[in-house]
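Components:
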Amino acid sequence: MILRELYNAYLHKGSLLSTFAFFALALFCVSLTMGPNETLLRQTAPGLIWILAILTIFFSTPLLLKKEAQCGLLDEILLHPSLTSTYLLSKVTAEYIFIGLPLALMSFIFSPLFTLSSGETLALLLTLLIGFPALSALGILGSLLTLNTQGGGLLLSLIILPLALPLLIFGLSVMEITRLGLDSFPSFCLLMGSSLFLLILSITAGSWALPFAAER
Amino acid sequence: MLDVRNISFPPLFSDLSFSLSKQEMLLVRGTNGAGKSTLLRMVAGLIPPPPGVLFWEGQRIQLSTYQQNLLYSGHSLGLHPEALLKDQVNLWHYHYRVEKKAIEKALHIWGVASFDNQKTAHLSQGQQKRLSLSRLHWLARPLWILDEPHTNLDAEGRKIFEDALAHHLKNEGLAILASHEKLSGIREVFL
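Structure:
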């Protein structure tokens, strides 16, 4: 199943490129509009990058899943002997590799635009890498819940965005503590804990939602 | 071998029962919107049936085990929207763990093997249907559940399908077909 999902994500490479282009352009434009004030840039950068990452994932995942559902690929998944949770975990893994890692890498590359120090850049990279599995899983859950609805994008934001807040809060607290030069390990643990909890919650809820999403 | 007892999906159909033995075929007929596809999806377990409705080999079904006996082909063809034909073959290979050679052989039979480097979404409706139905040749399952299998097929495609179906039934297979067309000499359920 994991091989299938990796190959499936690879086949979406065209759509993924536009996702990366959106993220890169958004980061670039935000850094330009903030002006040359270095302190302001450093203070606001983590929040802006996190919010952009969340929005990018929450808007790209439903598009990919909707295409697959319309073609009847979810029926194939339901008829497969593997558990639906195995499918969802495989999908999260594939999204992590094909979307999460490139987005984290792009944040790393664009961090000089926000005059982040090397310590802050590393912390940002780690928070994103820890947060992306849960973000992907939440994005998939939201997509499944809104697949057969009109205006699914708005509904998805209303249902799923609040669930992503713990990641945002703990991710940003790591960044703030790093900026102040304090020990950020406890905050990292909180971020990892919330990421793991949301991952499990999303996979469980997604397994329940999948048969309903495939019903058209 | 397959028993369906008092299956209901109000308001489309209620208390519908039928059974199917080896080498038997059932045609589900009805007008548009009569519930043919819904019935087939329920029999395939894609719409979870209530307990005590489906029986396979005399036993109440355990859904994931039962589903390993069936080949379902619905309205959506199950072709990846971004895949070239060769990518689709790879995807099936990973999903069903079937040898690529077996799939490629089936594509030759269905006359679509030469579109190797074309996007499946760019093929004609009939070619896409042929590609989707090629699984009849490479996925060995005793129970076929096929929703409107003749749609978009030309005379040659229909002939390939009829031959595959005859071969399947001869080899102790079972088949449930949904159609709004009448096919002669086949047991029917009319919705």
